Amino acid sequence: xxxxxxxxxxxxxxILDNGYWDEDPRPVYPDxxxxxTISVNHVTRSYDLxxxxxxxxxxxxxxxxTGIREIFTIYQRSTNVLSxxxxxxxxxxxxxxxxxxxxGQRYGATVKRYDLIHNLxxxxxxxxxxxxxxxxxxxxxxLRETPGLPPCAFLTIWNVRGEFLDMCLIQRSGDMLTAxxxxxxxxxxxxxxxxxxxxxxxxxxxxxxxxxxNEQIYDRHIDNAHEILRRGEEQAAKGEEEQPFLQLNKxxxxxxxxxxIDDFEMVNYHPIKPQLKxxxxx
Length: 282
Fold this sequence. Notes:
Elements: H1 3-18, E1 20-21, E2 37-48, H2 64-76, H3 82-87, H4 108-114, H5 116-126, E3 134-136, H6 140-145, E4 153-161, E5 164-171, E6 174-175, H7 176-180, H8 185-201, E7 204-218, H9 222-238, E8 245-248, E9 264-267
Parallel strand pairs: 5-7, 6-7
Antiparallel strand pairs: 1-2, 2-7, 3-4, 4-5, 8-9
């Protein structure tokens, strides 16, 4: 099992055993049924990328390339336009169209408005031991400017530690089995962002920590949660295996704009199949 697999099994047990059910939920399923969740508050997971602890789960296939492409839409091309996101291979934002072909003044639009990523890179290079390296997608002026889904994973904090670059991700809410959970899309995305920023600034990727304020399992995902636990038992019985890791094939000091999905290679990744299907609460 990967470290992420162990976290995912433990966190799934914790939610099913100790979670609380919501009341009058905002999200609904595509058929209009209220999407109830069972959740826990304050979940923390930590990985040391330098020790090969890349956060990807093997308990179901993860669409890691699409996840990284979404990071490009936020931090590299920095767009909120659905057609541009779809051109880059990110197609799941359609239900959040605010009516003008965008997701509102959110995510990539916020990064572009405040030049957040270049400010971060410059700060790491010029003032490595400063403790103000914060990239926040939660900008009140932006949230009030247009409707749209407020960002879920919204804050990163960066610290230089000698030759290493560490980062923590703060997330207000997370659908554990589809995106926010251990080794899921959100952790893959932001660990890959750490790899990229480390390359650009000439550092080694170090510690990645993920904090989720409220992490939930939807009522229609309970059966899949039990399947995840069954697969976890299956993986544990196999014993030690080679750990998967994401390799970034680019020279140190390259420009952030130069990264493409072809620069990434997932090594030793052999997830359990078949894929699981999830109804999404929107």
